[in-house]
Structure formats: C-alpha cells, structure tokens
Amino acid sequence: MKKMVQIEPSSTFLLLLLLLLLLLSHCTFAAILTSFNRNFRSRNDGNRLTMNFLASPTIVTAMAFSGKLSFNPATDSIPLPSGEFFRFSPPIGTDLPPAGFAPGDTSFYPSPVPEPHPETEVVIKKDSQRLELLEPFESPFGPDSGNSRGLELPPLKVLMRVRGKCTTDHISAAGPWLKYKGHLTNISENLRESLIGLTHLYLLNHHIQS
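User: That's the sequence. What structure does it adopt?
Assistant: Structure tokens below.
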C-alpha cells in the first residue's frame, strides 16, 4: 500500500519561490563596472548574463557610492540620510611622481643576465598531470637549421583560418583546464577539443545554410 505525502500549501509556495529565485539567479541580466582589464561575461559573479564594463578607478568608486549606472559624478548628487546632498569634487593630483619612482632595495632585482645552473635538478613526478618537463626546441634559425631564409621563418602551412569573433576563450577555454598550464601535452588537448568543436559548428552551419 502506497503512502501519500501531503505537502502543505505554505511548503509548496516556498518550494516554488525557491525554484523561481534559483532560476532568476541564472537568468537575470546585470551590469558591473570594474577597473581591471577582464571584462568577459560572468567574470565577477558567475552569471553568464552579467556584462562587465571597464572604467577608471575614480569612476568605479563614484558609481559604487551612487548605486546606479546612470549616475554622472560631474553633475549629479547623492542624497544623504540627513536630507542634504553630496556631490563629488573633480579629482586632482599628480599622475606620476615628479622625481620619479623610488628604486627601492635593488638587491631584490633579478639579474639582467642570470648565470645558468645546469647542475640544478628540477624534480617532477613521472606521472604528473599538471607539470611536464620540456626538452629544448630546435631553433628554426642558424646554419644547422636547414632554413635558407636566414632570420625569417621557413615556409609554413596554414592549418586553420577563422572568421568573425574568435577570442582566447574560443581557441583554448580556461576553467578546469587552467590546472594544466604547466603541462604542454595536456593543455594542447584542450586546444584540440576546441578546434574539433569549432569544426563541427562550421560544418553544421555550412550544412544548414546549404
């Protein structure tokens, strides 16, 4: 005999409200002002619909105090709890120190031409999936390279040509693949999968158009 579970109306309402909030959290359009040079969607809050706009630190700070993107710090005021209004003054100051930057402790500076230490052993586990030792690449220049063009690259073949929007995220997307940035073979697998995906999209689009 089956048991029937009765849900109270209040519980049903809360459940539906929770599902609605969860849905809106992934479907809400938003905009963020940031002063650092990463303006990809969902970069700051994980929402793929959030658009990030770049601005100077001064503008970002003024917008944060105002709480709205329509705020113009040159002409608009911010209401205060006392009933008065606050207006920003134009920033003044020197962009660079007149006497230049202090050099600091030069003993911490790296050597312009560091001496090689071939006796130093870099130990990496043989089965490591995050780090990989690289053998020196053969130079395409020089008398022993077989390149008759001197300092110019030898004749190369174009393996793929793309049109339209093509960013680094399309070529080799980040995310979990970042853990392989010290492993050339594994990170190249990410590039291979990206190229296969782009090829499938091209073929599908070409088939639909034809």
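The longest strand covers residues 30-34.
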